[in-house]
Prior knowledge:
The protein is α/β, with parallel strands linked by helices. It contains nine helices and 42 strands.
Amino acid sequence: MTWTAVILAAGLSTRFKSERPKVVHPLAGRPMIQHVLKSLRAAGCPHPPVVVIGLNASAVREAAGPDVRFAVQPEPRGTGDAVRWAEPILRGEVPHILITYADLPLVRPETFRRLIETHQATGATLTFLTVHRADPAGYGRVVRDPAGRALRIVEEAEANPEEREISEINVGVYVVREPWLWVALSRLQPSPAKGEIYLTDLVALAAAEGARIETVALEDPEEALGINTRVQLAEAERILRRRINTRWMLEGVTLLDPERVYIGAEVSIGPDTVIYPDTYIEGETRIGRRCRIGPNTILRDAVVGDECVVEASVVEGAVLADRVHVGPFARLRPGTRLAEDVHVGNFAEIKNSAVGPRTRMHHFGYLGDATVGADVNIGAGTVTCNFDGVRKHPTIIEDEAFIGSDTMLVAPVRVGRRAKTGAGSVVTRDVPPETLVYGVPARPRSPSQDVGDASGAD
Ligand code: UD1
Ligand code: CA
C-alpha cells in the first residue's frame, strides 16, 4: 500500500461565523467532513486517514467518526503548519501522502484517484489539483513559467493585480512524496500578509529545487468549491442535491421538480417511485418501488415498502410494509410498524405501535404503545390513553375489532377479537372477544337494554 491521506480541519472557521467548526455543519444531512472521508474511502484510501484538528475539537472528533486517526494542531498557524502535526503519526508509513481540506466536500473519488495515479506514474515529488474558474476570487492562483511549468501558488492576500487575473486556481488537494514533505514543511516561512504558514508554498520550494511538479486539471469546476461561508455552504448543498437527485432519476425515480426535493446522501429509493415537490427524505430512509411520496412530506429514518402512498405527512423512525397509505396530515413517530394495506388517514398520530394488515385509522386519533391486529377499524377520534402521568401503558386491540368514534382506551387495556366499542366509550377494563361495550365507563351491552349500536365514522 502506497498512500494515505491527511485532512485539515483545525482552522478557526472565522468566515463561517459559527460557534461550531464549519466542518461539522451538515451538508445533504451529514457533517461536511464526512463527505471528504467517504470520498477518500471510495477512492480506496488504504490506511485510515489522519484528521488534523484544533484544541478542544470534540465536535470534529465526533463528526469524523471512528475510522480515522487524529493529530492536534495546538494553534491555527496556517495549512502548512497543520500538516506538520501529522508527521509523528505518518513518518515512514507510506511513500505518498495525499493532503486535502475538510472544507472541500465535493471532490469526487475518481478525482482523488486520478491525482494519485498521475503522481505515481510520473514520479513527481508533488502533484496538485487545479481548475480554471470564471471567478477565481478567494482561491490561491497557479503561477506558471512560459513553458507552462507550475512555479508557485500565490494566495489572494499576496497576489498582485496581474496575478489576481489568473483564472487557474489551486483546488487544495495535493499528493507529496515522503520524506521530502516533512523536510520541506520545516523550511516554510510565515507569509508576509497574514503571518500564516502556507502549505501552498511547497510548490515554490519544489520548483526552486528543480523537483518534478505535476498538476491535474479538474474536469468539473463544481468539485473545487471550498466552503468558507454560509453562502458557499448553500451552493454546495444545491450542487449535492442536484448530484443526488440526478442519480435517483437515472435509477428510475420520477421527481416532479428536482429543485424542490431534498434527498439525503444515505437514502435509497426504488424505481417507478414518484416524488412530489417539497419533500424531505432524510437519514437512512429506504423507499420501495412504485410509491407516491409527497408533496409536503418529511421521511426521516423511515422504511417504506412497495406501492405505498405518503402524502403531506411526517414519518420518522417508522416501518411501512407494502401498499400502506399515509396521510394527508399524519404523523408517524419512532417505533411505528404498519403491516400491508394499512390506511392511516387525516390527522392521525401513531407512536411505538404495531398495526396489523388492512387495519384502517382514517380520521384524527392517537395510538401510542399499542398492538393492533388485522382488519381493525379505528373510528374517528380514537385515543389510546397510554400515559397515567408517570408511566406508559400498552393497549392491545385484537383482529377485526371495531373501535367506535371517539373511544378512549385507558391503558393498560385489551379489546378482544371482533369486539366493538360504542361511540364515546371510555374503556377502562378489558373487553372480551365478540362483545359490545359502550358508555362511561364502558360496560358490556346487556340484552334487556336497548342502546344504539356501535358507530364509527369511516
Ligand atoms: C486554501 C488554499 C488556497 C486554495 C483554497 C481552496 C492555503 C494557504 N490556501 O485557502 O490556495 O485555493 O484553500 O479552497 O492553503 N486549516 C487548519 N489549520 C490552519 C488553517 C487552516 O487545519 O491553521 C484547515 C481549515 O480547517 C480548512 C483548510 O485547512 O479546512 C483550509 O483552510 P482555509 O483557511 O479555508 O484556506 P483557504 O483560505 O480557503
Ligand atoms: Ca477554504
